[in-house]
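Hi there. Long-time user, first ticket. I'm pasting a complex I've been working with (about 412 residues overall). I'd like to know whether the download I got is complete or cut off, because the file seemed smaller than I expected. Thanks.
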Amino acid sequence: MIEETTSTQHEQVSLLLPWFVNNTLDDMEREIVQNHIDECSECEKDVALYSSLRSAVTRSSPTPILPNANLTRLLDSIDGAKVFPSTRRIPRFRITLVASLTATLVVTALTLIYQARTQPVPTRFQTATSAVPVAAMDYVLNVHFAAGTEAADRDKVWREIDARSITPGDAEGLYQVTVKLRVSTLEELEQYTRDVQSLTSVQSIEVVAMQLPLKPSM
Amino acid sequence: MQTKPKIDVSNEQELSLLRRVADKDRDALTELFHTYHARLFKFVFRLTHSYTIADEMVNDIMLLVWQKANTFRGESKVSTWIFGIAYRQTMRRVTQKQIRIVTSLDLDQLPSDDGASLELENWIRHGLKALPAAQQITVELVFFLGLSYQEVAAVCDCSVNTVKTRMFHARKKLKTLLEPSVEPTSSEIEKFDD
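Hi, the file is complete. Here it is re-exported in full:
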């Protein structure tokens, strides 16, 4: 039991020895360490070792002191006047590289903007109001037949308008068909719907959708 | 008879300075700079052996003091807080491999006029160099700056036990290196570079 206590005390004291040597232990700790050292040769040796280490560390001659000019640099850093201390100055080749890249990017951007403004952009998709001739496009039409219209009469209409696909009609005689049209203006489209509406048996017609071509009409 | 509580005049003055720095008082910063410049420079220089790096880092540390003065809660001495910044800056650079901790002493500066000094020089050359960065810095804090273990713990932002253990292991490694032979081989030294 006594041996255990002694062993624990030895370990605890052993950990305090550096601060025994540098004189920062409080009075009570210092006394405990001193009493232990008087009886423990191992700790006495360690104290000698730490003392040598301390001497070695403190015996080196003082390093040179920098001039006050550094304060100016610190104050400059605070003001943001110099973000980088002189020792961190960016190498000149990096500045040149960044400047070159920036200039290249700016020139490229300006060229693209200039081209975009001066050259007509090819119309990828054109609308029904466009005056430019366009390729044939699929239009979805709702065609409403008069009550009692025979299938044969409807077929005539389908052939007339060259219907591509026809949904089954509902009880009201409404059919949805797809046709391919080549119209340049809204007026032409309106004219087309009037033409279809004038066909026999057709009661009304309306354009409900337009499928744009996937490729531009060049 | 009651004993008067110890008042650390120096810390009180520095605390006052730091409060003014927190209020962005440049004169206070100037005063604090002059108070700490030499100690900080020596501390960093001894760890890095680079005049340039030490110069640069003192600037960085004082800039951080300026920026973070308002976060100081007064739980430690001002000096402990400032050296805590210095320690973290140093360790950060060591971790990022921007700097490497070199042996603590410039051997040319050691007196070598007697046998004991030469032996000591040899011991420092082979011993301290072999310690890991954290242990080397702890040795510096304890023996160069003369900090108590509580202060070292505050500077390193670690527990007191960690500090004690670091010094214990530093001593153990030094002893292991020194005891078998006066001149340890380079492979022996490398073994301790963990």
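A couple of notes from our side: Chain A has seven helices and four strands. The radius of gyration of chain A is 48 Å.
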